[in-house]
């Protein structure tokens, strides 16, 4: 038996321990003749359990049901809690993206030429898992990297926003039923390819579906930037590029495709995607070298 030093043994405060006694999470302790509280080894263990579950963000009510629950019930509760924590993290990530967009927009110096503020680049899925050693490697991604690096550098000089729209998956995402696990949240594979790494003034938005407007903060970022024209670049012309560009069209944006800045896993898939967008929607198609000048009506000389 130990005295109130139980606080030191458990990492809890005296106030917290007494609160847990009052609400019935632990039994009131015995006392010495001098009035000191005596805590058994069993109570100390129970207090440590409470502290452990609190660190896992369970409520006190939930902890009350876990302390004496069978191991399988505890495991099920932890599985549910993991999903809830991941959902909260994603909500905070989205909120952070909006805050970054708002603050960056406010703090950015007005160095854009006339008309530049009306356009932005949306660069899709340019992430490590497409490289050698990644979950979905394809050599064809290398074909577009040099042009995109030059395009992004020019955009920054002109003050045109660069928005990276990146796959960011959790274990329960429906897309993973179709594809291998890829671009998993916080993994190396989900990071943006080094040679195209974003600059402080750029924007990064996470998505978990092909259509980059669904369940993301892309629309909020675009609203903050007040852009009217979107130049799409990146990976899988016929899937994420096409679906997001078509959605942008339906939302009223002027849409353009970087002709040599998009690609897919095969040439036929890429050509199919380009044909789909050009024939059905009439999107402008511009080479990276002159795309910004064309869209912003800037004299290249």
Structural overview:
This protein has 301 residues and is an alpha/beta fold. Helix content is 44%, strand content 14%. The protein has two domains: 6-66, Multidrug-efflux Transporter Regulator, Chain: A, Domain 2 (Orthogonal Bundle), CATH 1.10.1660.10; 114-296, Rossmann fold (3-Layer(aba) Sandwich). Helix 5 runs parallel beside helix 7 (218-225), helix 6 (145-158) packs parallel to helix 10 and helix 8 runs parallel beside helix 9 (267-281). The chain is elongated, with a radius of gyration of 27 Å.
CATH-defined architecture of the largest domain: 3-Layer(aba) Sandwich
Q: What is the N-to-C order of secondary-structure elements (H for helix, E for strand)?
A: HHEEHHHEHEEHEHEHEH
Question: What kind of oligomer do you see?
Answer: single chain
Could you report the average pLDDT, rounded to the nearest whole number? Answer: 87
Features:
Rossmann fold; single chain; Multidrug-efflux Transporter Regulator, Chain: A, Domain 2; 2 domains; alpha/beta; 44% helix; 301 residues; 10 helices
Strand and helix map with partners:
Blueprint: H1 6-10, H2 14-22, E1 30-31, E2 37-38, H3 41-55, H4 60-66, H5 71-107, E3 119-124, H6 145-158, E4 162-167, E5 203-207, H7 218-225, E6 229-235, H8 237-250, E7 254-263, H9 267-281, E8 284-286, H10 288-296
Parallel strand pairs: 3-4, 3-6, 4-5, 6-7, 7-8
Antiparallel strand pairs: 1-2
Helix pairs in contact: 5-7, 6-10, 8-9
């Amino acid at each position: 038996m130990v005295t109130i030093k139980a606080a030191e043994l458990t990492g809890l405060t005296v106030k917290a321990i007494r609160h847990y006694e009052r609400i019935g999470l632990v039994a009131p302790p015995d006392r010495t003749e001098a009035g000191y509280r005596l805590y058994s080894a069993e109570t100390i263990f129970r207090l440590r359990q409470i502290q452990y579950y609190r660190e896992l963000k369970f409520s006190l009510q939930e902890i009350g049901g876990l302390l004496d629950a069978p191991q399988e019930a505890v495991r099920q509760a932890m599985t549910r809690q993991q999903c809830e924590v991941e959902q909260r993290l994603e909500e905070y990530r989205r909120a952070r993206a909006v805050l970054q967009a708002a603050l960056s927009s406010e703090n950015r110096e007005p160095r854009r030429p006339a008309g530049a503020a009306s356009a932005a680049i949306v660069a899709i899925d340019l992430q490590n898992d497409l490289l050698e050693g990644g979950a979905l490697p394809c050599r064809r991604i290398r074909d577009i990297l040099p042009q995109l690096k030059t395009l992004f550098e020019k955009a920054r000089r002109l003050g045109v926003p660069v928005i990276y729209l990146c796959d960011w998956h959790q274990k329960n995402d429906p897309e993973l039923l179709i594809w291998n696990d890829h671009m998993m949240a916080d993994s190396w594979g989900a990071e943006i390819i080094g040679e195209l790494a974003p600059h402080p003034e750029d924007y990064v938005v996470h998505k978990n579906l092909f259509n980059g407007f669904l369940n993301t903060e892309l629309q909020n970022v675009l609203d903050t930037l007040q852009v009217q024209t979107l130049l799409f670049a990146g990976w899988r012309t016929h899937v994420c590029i096409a679906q997001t560009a078509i959605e942008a069209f339906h939302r009223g944006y002027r849409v353009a495709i970087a002709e040599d800045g998009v690609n897919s896993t095969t040439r036929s898939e890429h050509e199919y995607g380009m044909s789909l967008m050009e024939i059905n929607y009439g999107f402008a198609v511009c080479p990276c070298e002159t795309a910004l000048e064309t869209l912003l009506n800037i004299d290249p000389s």
